[in-house]
Structures are given as structure tokens and as C-alpha cells.
Amino acid sequence: MVSRFAWFGRVIRAQSPAARLPRGPTGVKCSVSATLNLHRHGRYTESALTLPLFISANPKLIRDAFDHEDFIFELKMDGFRALAYVGNGETRLVSKNGRLMRRSANLATAIHLELNCEAVFDGEIVVLDSDGRPHFYDLLRGRGQPVFYVFDVLWLDGKDLRSQPLLERKRILHSIVPKQPSVLLYADHVEQYGIDFFRLACERDLEGIIAKRKKGAYGDPWFKIRNPVYSQYEGRRELFEKKYATRQ
Q1: What is the DSSP string of 53-90?
Q2: What does the pLDDT average to over 120-145?
Q3: What letter does residue 125 receive in the DSSP assignment?
Q4: CB-based burial of residue 217 (10 Å sphere; 0-12 exposed, 13-18 middle, 19+ buried)?
Q5: Helices 6-15, 194-203: crossing angle, 10 deg rounding
Q6: What is the β-pairing status of strands 67-76 and 190-193?
Q7: Phi and psi for 60 in degrees, rounded to 5?
Q8: What is the pLDDT of residue 42?
Q9: 3-class state of residue 175 by DSSP
Q10: How far apart are CA 228 and CA 91, in angstroms?
Q11: 94: Cβ–Cβ under 8 A, 6 or more apart, which residues?
Q12: CA-to-CA distance for 22 and 97, rounded, in angstroms?
């Protein structure tokens, strides 16, 4: 009998980085002609972006993991949340606050080389170790090779996909993300067993998990459950408070 926990190893292994170098277009085809224009203040606006402008879904924080047959569960990767706008001529990574992520320009270029499509993806920029665990401080300090952990597709081939059921969007996404090695990582998931998944994530010292209704529209509803003893939280608030204070 296959262990209920076999899927966890599969999900973890899916995040483990190989040599992720741009490999050129994958042959995935989309048809909408679009270009990306950047507002002069570094923020995307409706008038400055010809691709549709989206707002990142915001998961609700809850304390306890749960089991439910109507939900899937993904790893919560510790990095910088971003929307990837893949246009006809370029790709831009935009923060959840709507700002161009200039420090991630090389990653955006690598993503563009990986794809031959026009789309908007939701994901997390992360730096991973050899076991597939994210290292936030390496990402923050520009160490290691960042990758884009992509968990949703909002728009593709001129079509708004946000109202499509989550599992259908993930099926489409899986068909787009290149095979490894790649700078794009597809966010694998498990169904129903959130309690065990969360326990195993905590045992691996990962940040937590995200729960999503498998037939839900984009962001409806999403929940995040954080590992209360996650080692990389230590000192983070003080670090960002110090950085904020130096900007005043």
C-alpha cells in the first residue's frame, strides 16, 4: 500500500534546483500581440500597461491547518511575491504593491527566454538550496540564483482565466511551464490532507502552506498557515524596521 505521505516527497523534490539556465523558447504558443510599457515612476498603471493590470490575491492568515476534500494545499515559499507580465517583446516582474522589481530584471529576462507566449502569472521569487528549501536572506542579499515559483495563471492568449476553476488553471499552467532545468518552477500541490502536509512542512523547517478551494476562482478563497517556529523568521522584523528607519 502506497503511503499517504509519498506525495510530500514528490512535492519537495519538484522544488529542488538543478542547473537553471535559460534554454530559449519552449514552443508554447499564444497569439495576443501586446507590449509592456513602464510608467515613469516605476509603477504600472492602466494607461501605461497594454497587458491587463491585475492585483495579487491576498490569502487570509489562519492559525490551524485543516483537512477538506474541496481544497488543495501548496507549499508557502519564502521569497518575494510577484506577478510576471510576459509580453510580446519583454517580461516584467511586478511586486504585489504594483512596483517594478528592478533587482529581478535578469530573472525576468530569463523567464522571457523560456517562453514564447503572452500571459500573466502569479508566483514567488525564491532562492533554493539543493534540497529545494528557500533561503530568504540569500535572496535578499543577492546570493544564489533566483527562480520563479509559479502557482497560477491569470491571463493567457487574450483570455481572462481568473474565473476558471483552480484545478483547470493549474492544468493550463502545468502545460506552459517548461521541464527542468528552468528558471520557472511549477507549484505542485496535494489534495485534502492539509494537516499532515503542514506537519511535514514544519518538520522540514519550511514557512508553511497555502490552502485553496480547488474549484474556486482566483483568490477565492485562499488561506495561509504559517509555521510558528520557522527558523528564518528570526530577526526579520528588526531587519526590515532598521531598513525602513534608514530611509526616513
Answers
A1: P-----PEEESS--EEEEEEEEEE--SEEEEEEE-SS-
A2: 94
A3: E
A4: middle
A5: 50
A6: antiparallel
A7: -85, 130
A8: 41
A9: helix
A10: 36
A11: 44, 82, 83, 84, 85, 100, 101
A12: 28
What are the tens digits of pLDDT across the range 45-55?
433 347 889 99
Query: DSSP letter string over 148-166?
Result: EEEEEEEEETTEE-TTS-H
pTM of the predicted model as reported, rounded to 2 decimal places: 0.82
User: What would the grid cell of residue 4 be?
Assistant: 499517504
C-alpha cell at 41: 515612476
Domain ranges of the chain: 6-246
> Concatenated DSSP letters for 16-62?
--------------------B---TTSB--TTTBSSPP-----PEEE
For domain 6-246, the CATH class is alpha beta
Task: From 154, 156, 136, select the one nearest 146 (Cα to Cα).
Answer: 136
